[in-house]
Amino acid sequence: MGNGPVGMERVGTEHVSTEHDGAEHDGAEHDGAELVGRRSERVLLQRALDEARSGAGGSTTVLRGDPGIGKTALLDWVAARAGRDGFTVLRAGGDEAGTGIAFGVLHQALRPLLEHARALPRRQRAALESALGLRDPAFSDGLLVGASVLALLAEETRRRPVLVLVDDLHWVDSSSAAVLVFLRQRIADLPLALIATSRPIGTNRPIGTSPATGTNPPTGTSRPAASVLEGWPAHLVDVGALSDHDSRALLRRRHPDLAAATARRVLDEAAGNPLALTELPGRLEDEHRRGVVPLPERLPLGERLEALFAQGLRSLPAEAKRALLCTALDGAGTGALPGPVPGQDRAEGVLGPIEAGGLARLDPTGRLVFRHSLVRSAVIAAASEADRRAAHRTLAGRLRADDPRRLLHEASAAEGPDERLAARLQEAGTRVALRGGDAEGALLLDRAASLSSDAGNRMRRLTWAAVMSARGGRLAYAAKLVGELKRAPVPEDVAPLFAYAVVYVDQSHHVDFASSFSLLPTALATLTASGARGPGGSPGPAFGDLVEQMFFKLLLASVYTGDSRGWETLERYREHVSPAARLCHRAWADPPRTAHGAEAELRRMVAHRTARGETGHAWLLLWAASAVDGGDPDLWRLSGGEHAYATQGSVAKARCHQDFLRGRWDTARECLREAETAEELGYHCNALLFRHYHAHFLAGRGDERGLRAARARIEPVARRARMRFVTDHLDRLGALVALAHGRHEEAYTRLRGMMSPGDLPRGLSWFHLPFFDFVYAALRCGRRTEARAHVAAGQAARMGDISAHHAFLLAAATALTAGADEADAADEAEGVGEADAAYAAACAVPGADQWVFDLARLRLAHGSRLLRQGRHTDAGEPLRAALTAFTRLGAAPWAEQCRSALRGADGSPDSTAAGPAELTAQELRIARLVATGLTNKEVGAALHLSPRTVGAHLYRVFPKLGITSRAALARALPPGRPSGSPPGPAPSRRGT
């Protein structure tokens, strides 16, 4: 993108500038902080300054490039550097209007030095002041003026080095140009650098010629300015277009709030031109900048860009202008005709002026190609509406009747309503949508609506356009269309479709589910009534498919809010939808009672569709898979191209959650990037859900501060929308963080608010995720009865028959509660064997190792239990495996729990504080907790021990410390925080 003119050597590849040239300077000073990139050019310019300062001066550099490419910005940069380095900086710039003013540029440059002209010899001073209009004209030749300027500059270089900057050399008047040529040949020994800018040769009239006649104006000099470049020195630097990366960087810097789709279009139109990147977005309407409404066919350039890129248009013959306009309107942004230019356009009178002005050229295939994409935009901007319509008619006539481009040109040429043309556009939009191009189809339907002569047909087409735009990823535009639809009566035959469009926009864009329960039941009743006909026109989903999509939207609203009205309606219409929709419904409706075998059925459906190459309704299967934590790669492939962002956003959400569940935590930031994309496209509900999935990673890592910040951003929106799906998840994540930091009572209290012991509640479709957490927290708080009741409820509900993840979580929770209460070794031998078998069974569940975080927590629990039983050697293996997993996940608090347990497994004292050598690590922990005033039962709950085991340890501790009472523990132990105790003040002292 943005290649320089053919044959021009490019200097540097990291081109970014924020400045324009050839237009009025904006007055902003540029320095290194303003120039993003341009490293190679800056190196060359700095070298010129260094040479001048060292006395080996006389260098001359010309920065050559297209209008707006950033040459002036480089002059600004080098001027600032030279000023800081003690140079005298002399600056001037040519302009088209001033080409006939003799010595005009020279006067600009020398103005700061004119007070020193008195030191010149009398004849030189007179010649210089006469040339600059400072005294009455006197006869002098150009050589004498040049010698006077050289002497003036030489005098200044005795005081400090000099930098002369000349912008827009191609517009320098001939008199000044002649002096510059004279100087160039004689400044080799001076501490002076001369840097100029110019456009590529061939893109402008010859330098110094009259804009009107092309002849040299009278200047009083004998040397034409066109020769300035002919022998111009050495350092000719071609300043090219910005790289894609740096173009994006510049656009983000100048227009950080630009919508992604708008930014992409601006990048394409600008083709690496810095001025265009800076100026184009500022000419757009706010709704275009925010991506609410699709951008127009041509972007408004603004006066400065039009002046730069359309300077050669005014003098072109009419036929040449028409050829350029046809090329511009047919090129779809490429700036080239699809076929050879017609023979008459090849005439020298047409192509000659176009090529001479540097506007466009014929490529080797005979296609007319614009020098820059902005020339195309300038050509369109300069044409009248009537000229554009005529060009579209010409282009339509050149294309076959079945060419889709012909229809678009006919629509652009239309001067008023045309029902026949609108019907053809609707038909074309239908075909495009059926191929998966919903966004493109929506634009055709919108254009058809604008050409409709019948008000009812207009509303029908707008309704379909709103639906297709939403599914195609232009939700903000869909919201605008829905707003327009609400202002006029909607025909009865598209009322259900209108309801669907409203619900789609409300759910996805406004994060509002109220209309789902007020509109969809009526729409479903209408569409499923006996003899019901599909929505008028039907240029989108078929009748059955619309019922399916409404059913799905109502299912989403019901899952997210738990509203009983939705579940009741869904139950009524289950028989009107496909097996895929019914599977999706039963996977989410009440999983402990409705989802048995759901994952197995899902696999069969995916395999069947994959074998037959069918992709229809993959979005339903994708949502069913989310209910059972399925991650079938074939399902991702089935969902590969359906409905653009509507499905792709769902795929991304599923992937985010799967990455958390399966331990791919290095992808956590993808959730935030997806949230930004969703926001750009107007899918605010998706953005909320992506941030909610990112919060899972924060909670898993025990990042309390991060989770608090995420919750502060997520929860207010979710509560306004009554999204229990999100708010309940946030409560569960809070419990997960509490578990990570050993605050088991807090975790249990949070989870207890979601479910009761032994109860798998309706309305909590993802009950299995906090199931293991609930049992874990209950046990660590000493609530074994509640923990066992919960496991028994899971077993009774055949939780393991729902999915592989459900099965693992049930087996893991069962392992936690297996075995008798721990007392002394003689009493618990039978329970130890039962517990070992249960842990082994959990690890043997098919696919157990894919649930990385859950399995690591199970291993930590297993190792800690073995340690409490005194089986230190056996405890090492699961604890080390858990530590490895937690370390890889970045779950630092969990990893520290493993390290603490491993210290106990090694039999070493607690490393957090020194203690009496006679005590084991476990004895020291118990002694310190008892010293705070806790009872045996409370200590047991904190360390997952029975009260009898605590008592047995104390029985051994007292003799080792030489004490006989609990009260003496505090004095016998060294200072140190009890290991495993929560932070905060010590509990009040109680008796046993």
TrEMBL record:
Residues 912-977 form the HTH luxR-type domain. Gene3D superfamilies: Winged helix-like DNA-binding domain superfamily/Winged helix DNA-binding domain (1.10.10.10). Residues 206-224 have a biased composition (Polar residues). The keyword Transcription regulation does not apply. Keywords: ATP-binding, Nucleotide-binding. Residues 203-224, 971-992 are annotated as: Disordered. Residues 975-986 have a biased composition (Pro residues). SUPFAM superfamilies: C-terminal effector domain of the bipartite response regulators, P-loop containing nucleoside triphosphate hydrolases. The keyword ATP-binding applies. This is AAA family ATPase.
